[in-house]
Model the fold of this input.
Amino acid sequence: MSPREIFALRDHLGAELTGRTVSDAHDVVSLTDILSHTVLGGRLRELSGRSVLLKLSDQLRSGLAMIELDGIARRMLLCPPDLNPAHLEALIADAAIDAVVTDEPDRWANSGVSLVVTAQLPLEATAPAKSERATEWLMLTSGTSGVPKIAGHTLEALTGAIVAEGPARGPAPVWATFYDIRRYGGLQIFLRAILSGGSMVLSDPHEALGDHVARLKARGVSHISGTPSHWRKLLMSGSATQFAPRYVRLSGEIADQAVLDGLKAAFPNSSVGHAYASTEAGVGFAVNDGLEGFPADYLGNRNGVEMKVVDGSLRIRSTRTAHAYIGRNAAALTDDDGFVDSGDIVELRGERYYFVGRRGGIINIGGLKVHPEEIEAVINRHPDVRMSRAKSRKSPITGGIVVADVILADGADPARAKEIRDQILDRCRAQLASHKVPAVIRFVEALDVTPAGKLARTDA
Amino acid sequence: MSVRSKVIEAIQQIAKEQHVTLPALSDDLSLHETGFDSLAFAILVARLEDDTGVDPFTISEDAAFPATVGDFVRAYENVPA
Done:
């Protein structure tokens, strides 16, 4: 039996494309000669065949360590910045971690993890390494309140959608994302930058939005992705002017028509698309016709991605899904037929499916199930609204009622608040069942967004 | 604005939104006769809580829901400040 050809991240980084960089708010690292440099102090050999916890305080060193470790380590577990430290012990046990790459080696001195490797900048020169194995990529699911689940991927699965799309036309893209690259949505963009022969501009959680956008412009970002919440924040900030990316991508939350239209208006020369992906289900599809939802004929088998709807929830089977949850008591990731149940509820209207919410996010209003997202979608279509959040509130009469917090768009006159409220309620009454119409609408200055870039839904 | 007029104004506003035609609001009009359904009352109680800071029906364990408009108004008037 001949061994399968191993294709790791380093094998996408030839020196023939010059001028490639990966940068954050502080440093710029050249990708052109990255293969003869090390962020691991030259200790990559020690990590060969190990199960490595990647626990770094910044994305730049994390990304550089991923490039080095892929094809060498047995597996690597990516820790997003908001990981609760109390969950580390369980994750280390579940992933059978026996090495850690960190920028805080002192913290790991007495941890019981036998091998601690420090990641550091500037890079040091080293001999290029050769890929040895298909490294397993372990990613943590977001949105759960307990210990996050570990989803196991391969580079092949993670890059399936990117390879299927083929190379980008025109000059090599400069990618950026509002996500952290240690989460699925952000990692997709980092991998796109690597595979496309382009560059990558990383986000920084401590940077003001205006400064971030100035950096995106200065680095010539041409392709950029974020959640609808990220994008609404950008549209609200007024920082979007003079930023002219070629491609604007949304994922991670429902892209409603209001945010798609808002982005098209803010970036008239960009193509605006939304993608459906999750840590478990991988990249399902991209929608580039400017409309919310997706065409009904996406169901069935399309480019190797099979989708069906069971009990209202989208199920996906493809080579891009995670292959398993990892750990001692890990649940099955797929149903008996190999489909991942996304928990995303869709509804067929005409020739299109629309996302109405998360199965776990349903609020109960007087015994009736309500998806807050479908209410927000109606509210967000009001031209004076930028963003909204619907939630339940206890009621002594019906048990629960819907209330909505609304952020007005720039330039909406606060003196018109009452009139806008009445208009929003009129629209809701015209388009929603009566129990879904908010009983109370509050105008607020801000809405919480989680570290994963999603609207915080603490009551869901 | 007195508590009474706040309550009456909220009832009228919700009646308008819900397309309910209210009869004349006298104290002895039964709440049933207002034409409000439970959802409309839930909205009324939530808005009044935001406006006045109190929800007399949640505070008191044994409060029976009022039977008439007068009882309803008094539930708000009688909340200790």
